[in-house]
């Protein structure tokens, strides 16, 4: 199975990233996450999910969950903020 962040780490020779999740926000329109452990809230304005050690809140407008697999998720819409607790 293709793992986006593993491929980036190989290309850039970054093997020491110890985070329990990887996340990239592309222009406030797409949020891609690997390493989530489940959804806690899902609405058009707020998506909250957990990782091993954190709770991540995505807020904005017209948010949609495009990908949801065991460890990967993708959110699209007008992403205004991403907060970790």
Task: Detail the topology: elements first, then pairings.
Elements: H1 4-12, E1 22-26, E2 30-34, E3 38-42, E4 46-50, E5 55-68, E6 72-84
Antiparallel strand pairs: 1-2, 2-6, 3-4, 4-5, 5-6
Written account of the structure:
With 85 residues, the chain is mostly beta strands. It is 11% helix and 55% strand. Strands 1-2-6-5-4-3 form a 6-stranded antiparallel beta sheet, with no helix packed on it. A hairpin with a 3-residue loop joins strand 3 and strand 4 (46-50). The N and C termini lie far apart (30 Å). The model has no long low-confidence stretch (mean pLDDT 87).
In short:
By secondary structure, this protein is mainly beta. Helix content is 11%, strand content 55%. The mean pLDDT is 87.
Q: Label the structural class.
A: mainly beta
The percent range for helix content is: 10-25%
Series of H and E elements: HEEEEEE
Strand content: over 45%
Count every helix, treating DSSP H or I runs of 4 or more residues as helices. Answer: 1
The parts where pLDDT drops under 50 for at least 5 residues are none
Across the major sheet, the strand order is: 1-2-6-5-4-3
Largest sheet: 6 strands, antiparallel
What key phrases describe this protein's structure?
single chain, 85 residues, mainly beta, six-stranded antiparallel sheet, 1 helix
């Amino acid at each position: 199975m293709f793992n986006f962040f593993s491929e980036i780490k190989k290309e850039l020779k970054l093997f020491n990233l110890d985070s329990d999740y990887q996340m990239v926000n592309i222009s406030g329109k797409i949020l891609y996450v690997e390493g989530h452990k489940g959804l806690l809230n899902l609405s058009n304005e707020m998506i909250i999910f957990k990782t091993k050690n954190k709770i991540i809140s995505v807020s904005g407008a017209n948010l949609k969950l495009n990908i949801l697999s065991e460890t990967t998720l993708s959110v699209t819409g007008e992403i205004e903020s991403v907060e970790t607790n």
